[in-house]
Amino acid sequence: MRTVIAASVDVDATVDEAWQAITDWPAQSAWMPFTTVAVVGDVRVGPRTRLRAVTGIGAAAVVDEMEVDRWEPPYRCDVRHDGRVVRGRGVFLVEDQGAGRARVTWEEHLDGRMARVGAPAGRRMLSIALRRFARTLPTTR
Q1: Which one of 3, 28, 48, 101 has the lowest number of neighbouring Cβ atoms within 10 Å?
Q2: From the DSSP assignment, how many helices (H) and strands (E) are in the chain?
Q3: Does residue 84 sit in helix, strand or coil?
């Protein structure tokens, strides 16, 4: 069974600016709570980019191995979660809102019982992360 959680935030940034920021993998460490994100492997951008996110502290940390498998700049990026604990898909969507604004949506399509149990906390975490993400964007043009 698959559980879908999602959150969105409107940002004072163009679609291209929001896209560049949301797909800057190492920079995600600054706005994802308790998470460090790194690119692993030779491909740094686009399809086949391999990512490793470590969420948590010490022995309680969860390692999330991912690979970008859908890349449609500047509107959509999908990653496949290949870890032992986190399985499923992550999706980043960027929509033009006009007047130099964009909406960024983060969806997680997660497999397994743990995903269903953790869905309420997961939704909250996505919302917190996206609010933090919005604050990382420049406020002036």
Answers
A1: 48
A2: 2, 7
A3: coil
